[in-house]
Amino acid sequence: MQEDTQPKLLPEPFFTDDTIVFGLLMLLLGFVFYTASRKGGLWEKFYNIVPALFLAYMLPAVLTTLGLIAPEWNTVTESGEVQTHSTKLYYVSSRYLLPAALVLMTLSIDLKAVFNLGWRALAMFFAGTIGIIIGGPIAILLVSIVSPETVGGSGFDEVWRGLSTLAGSWIGGGANQTAMLEIYQFNQKLYGGYVFVDILVANVWMAIILIGIGKSARIDKWLKADTSAIEELKDKVSTFSKKVERNPNLTDYMMIGAVAFGAVSIAHFGATHLSAFFGDYVAGITNQTTRNIFTFLDSSFFWMISIATLIAIGLSFTKVRLLEGAGASKVGSLFIYILVVTIGMKIDFKLIFENPGIIAVGFVWMAIHAVLLILVAKLIRAPYFFLAVGSQANVGGAASAPIVASAFHPSLATVGVLLAVLGYAVGTVGALLCTMLMQIVSQS
Predict the structure, then answer these.
(1) What span, in angstroms and rounded, lies between the C-alpha atoms of 305 and 286?
(2) How far apart are CA 213 and CA 100, in angstroms?
(3) 100-128 pLDDT per residue, tens
(4) Whole-number Å distance between alpha carbons of 417 and 428
């Protein structure tokens, strides 16, 4: 008898209205920021250990685990038809608020100081990429010793085919992940389980990175890192912010909104046309390997983030940068935190035990990525900032790399974006190499 591979129905949460869910998420943010602002007592001690960003990230996961909210769920009609529903909050946050935040947080950037960060930023990014490439086959080898059936399978159900989609996601992003699914023709009925592994492992790793941010000074001391370039960039931006600081009025906030969402509209307009143009161009490439390498060019998200960042960098050379004095980066940070809580609601801790074997492969894989990053950081004396952002530019892409970067300082968000865009470019090539190694290991 053929095994039933139909995906399990996702339960309907208690709150399905996005208006209500958004209100709950904002209440969580309000709780986090109110308690984090309390001086003295248990709250101050708590936030000395646990960063506010981490709590903003994990509290929505608790609501999802309790069944109060959910990123996606199913309902069954009277005729037996299964309907899939999902929240639009992450889509709105990542497509509208994220590019707006990048614009507002980049207005006051000193581009020369960003370039002065030096080669260590790129070195840590590529260390993260190599960690993912070699981590996949090593994880398969290690897990096969304990449970060979976990990394087995046959035909289009072979586990290495499914893991290829994780390689695409963890080096590049969604476009690269889809490319790997198409290249290796993994059974799409099983694909949902690997998407969950992707979300769970990547988000748990991001949570660990966020915890480390609160201890970055001690980590940098252990790494014997040279943080002078980072501190210089932060000092330049902070000095400029203080110099132009003023009490904002309604006109200032209107201008902040106009610049942010005007740039978002231009970015979306450009992304729509560029992704369509390059989509046709990529589709016309006869060599499949070459076509899959450039598949990220037909991603509207890639173009949207790239255009928004370029607009912001251009505006940083104009008088528009004076909006920083009215709190432009603070409004951008608000948008980033809204994105954080919508990412956090993707995690359901109950599902951890549904596919423990593949999840174990994912965690071993990510551990290898982390160990290599730490070793390289120690060797070249790279700051924890480069480790954290270099990792997230690979694993999290343009949605989470700016979050991690801005947690160090709002002015550093641009560094996360630039490295994440590089991740899109090398994503499919790196994932192809990783998958070839996983296939060799699985069939040996």
Answers:
(1) 28
(2) 24
(3) 988 888 887 777 766 777 788 889 989 99
(4) 18
